[in-house]
Amino acid sequence: MSHVRPVTMCLVATEESNAEANYFRHEALGVVFQVRDGRLNVLLWQRAEPPFEGAWSLPGGLLDPGERLGASASRHLAAKVDIPEIAHLEQLETRSDPVRDPRDRILATAYLALVPARARPCLPPDTTWHPVDALPDCAFDHASIVRSARERLRAKLSYTNIGFALAPETFTVSQLRDTYSAALGYPVSATNLQRILTRRGVIEATPGLSRPAPSGGRPATLYRFAASELVVTNPFAAFRPRAAEA
Amino acid sequence: MSHVRPVTMCLVATEESNAEANYFRHEALGVVFQVRDGRLNVLLWQRAEPPFEGAWSLPGGLLDPGERLGASASRHLAAKVDIPEIAHLEQLETRSDPVRDPRDRILATAYLALVPARARPCLPPDTTWHPVDALPDCAFDHASIVRSARERLRAKLSYTNIGFALAPETFTVSQLRDTYSAALGYPVSATNLQRILTRRGVIEATPGLSRPAPSGGRPATLYRFAASELVVTNPFAAFRPRAAEA
DNA sequence: CCAAAAGTGTTGGGAATACACCCATGC
DNA sequence: GCATGGGTGTATTCCCAACACTTTTGG
Question: Is B158 on the interface with A (CB under 8 A)?
Fold first, then answer.
């Protein structure tokens, strides 16, 4: 049954030419982000063979029969990182340029995957983290997909609790500020970050304190995110409805 | 008829089982919105045959070889509305539930398509507008796609100029308020709408005035949108960078 | 003059930024 | 005590919502 490429045979004539050829391969790609050393990084693997030999690619692979795209993304990412380390996964967009792969047509649905800062997944030898501000030579349309994923992340940081998927279990406000700064790409004030996120109920203080300090300094309150799934906390930039009760 | 499935024949064995069966049909679906009679409407056609006989469907159809998804959406929508009447088209999301179509697996990429208020496209007999607040019985996952499209529209109205694709060429602030109210689903103040959109440079006054009034009233300034393609006008709900120059 | 619709002035509130100042720890 | 980093208090700014009031038309 399996092991066959659908052979296009002209069985019947139809009103639309090529009606039988309307079958496509489809891949799921994961844009895996993690903040490391104060910079937002993306997981890429280096191609050993043409096309784009030596260039860097997003992890991913073909959609299987009976499989959903999200599950496919998870399955292929499992080859690179432990799946429980992916704290958030969401669909980004589907690329359909017929020549995005020079060999053969293949559609690609990209997913945004976020790994909390402290996780240190062990990676296959061909796979490493790259700062998104300094992407290496990328294969296919992957560089543009990474930029698009970054835009999505940037936007959602300001009106959702998506930071939960980038921050470790507990953290100080300073650490969270570094995470936000790295993801947004510009400096963020710890003072305001703390106030905004606590007022919105996005983060909450824990009983614990951070261990004093390496070279002095007041011990910091440890915070955690109140929820560990995506919540839109700031839906209306303008034109709010009269009484928006929860 | 068309719909000839690719005949699977055992040609070669490969390292990954089912590697050659990973071919899928793919359809582009259009969620066409227009504000009519003060309500947001969506274009649906009624199915004459099973499955979901009698239920209402989104316009769309199969992706062709060599065709991009956006072009495919346009091509299939052309059967329902004049393409120039679609002022904005953007990709929404891709659905991949293996059983979303009970007959055979088919992936679907949904597009949001907006038609300005005054256009009155002539429709095929099986196709009509339906208020999104009172959707009829819908086929497949189409009802949920419509809801998702509406959410996207709602969100973008507050931080982009996307209203340009729902409003006619020129309009009074009152008319624009009705458009926004319909799309958002709750009342909007004309006073504030005018101020917000002019301050952001989204709309601008034209030299013209609306004809006096039917039963009295001051003639209104005619406005137009400054741009006719999507512009994000209010990108930062919080955490704005220090100096965000254009 | 009155009704109707448009447009402007003004006020108030909420939220975000900026900055000053106080707190707690190591040395 | 002093340096270092954490946290709070407060002022300022900006933006939006609400409402009052003025403007311009038709009858």
Answer: yes
Q: How far is B56 from chain A (nearest CA, A)?
A: 24
- List the pLDDT tens digit at each of the 246 positions of chain A: 344 444 333 333 334 444 457 999 999 999 999 999 999 999 999 999 989 999 999 999 999 999 999 999 999 999 999 898 999 999 999 999 999 999 999 999 999 999 999 888 888 999 999 999 999 999 999 999 999 999 999 999 999 999 999 999 999 999 999 999 999 999 999 999 999 999 999 999 999 777 766 677 789 999 999 999 999 998 877 787 764 332
- Alpha-carbon distance B205 to B233, whole Å? 18
Q: Measuring CA to CA, how many Å separate A246 from each of A118, A201, A227, A235, A243?
A: 34, 13, 16, 12, 9
Q: Which of A2, A210, A7, A52 is nearest to B20 (CA)?
A: A2
How far is A31 from B133, CA to CA, in rounded Å? 36
Q: Closest Cα partner for B154 from A243, A235, A160, A233?
A: A235
Per the structure block, which two tokens stand in for A70?
């999200």
Q: Are B43 and B59 in contact (CB under 8 A)?
A: yes
CB B229 within 8 A of CB B156: no
Q: Which of residues 161-190 of A touch strand C (CB under 7 A)?
A: 189
> Are B167 and B114 spatial neighbours (Cβ–Cβ below 8 Å)?
no
| Any strand C atom closer than 7 Å to A201 CB | no
